[in-house]
Amino acid sequence: MFNLILFGPPGSGKGTQSVNITETYKLQHISTGDLLRDEVSRQTPLGVEAQKYMDQGLLVPDEVVIGMISSRIDETPSARGFIFDGFPRTKAQAEALDKLLEFKNTQIHLVLSLEVPENDLIQRLVGRGITSGRSDDNEEVITKRIKEYHAKTAPVADHYQSYGKLTQIKGDNSIEDTFKLLSKEIDKYLQPA
Ligand code: ADP
Q1: How far apart are CA 75 and CA 66, in angstroms?
Q2: Which CATH code for domain 2-186?
Q3: Which DSSP letter does residue 27 get?
Q4: Mutate which of 19, 55, 58, 60 for ligand 1 pocket (most atoms within 8 A of beta carbon)
Q5: CA geometry: angle at 43 spanning 49 and 95, to 5°?
Q6: pLDDT (tens digit, 9 = 90+) per residue, 89-117?
Q7: Ligand 1 center to 26 CA (angstroms)
């Protein structure tokens, strides 16, 4: 099994690159943002709870997200590996993920961190809001999401850095060029399927 975390601030391109990586390396893509939006659109109890936080640009409570991830991992026991997109977003989530994987006799092998200047992030997210219809892609909520990122999510990079698992990737070039940089790192562990 090969397990990868695609890390980076909102708007850094995690979703786009996850799709490319999933297709090339045949990994299971787990996006907590997508899973949560699905719960919201079906108005499940979890979705109704999560929406309160998402609409304000705040992180959904750890226990909600960790439970959701745990059942998602169990759905595909024979996966070649997982790519985690938008998770873990707090140190508590990172520690819970490490434990979940250890229980399965596996681990996080690599964390690729997309580096994009803050001005570009805001521009990208505002642009996406116009076409995506995502209610959290407006300037006020975007600013809050970036603040949450610095306060709670950035420390996750230090967690994996301390295990020597973190690699930074320049993320402000074209989608294709960024994908090439990401692939070069993944190829050290896993060949395209
Ligand atoms: P982006 O990375 O562009 O901000 P996501 O789709 O990953 O977008 O997340 C959208 C929202 O969903 C976040 O602002 C947060 O409220 C919630 N969310 C997603 N993943 C997590 C997570 N791992 N922990 C807590 N909240 C999350």
Answers
A1: 15
A2: 3.40.50.300
A3: P
A4: 60
A5: 45
A6: 999 999 999 999 999 999 999 999 999 99
A7: 24
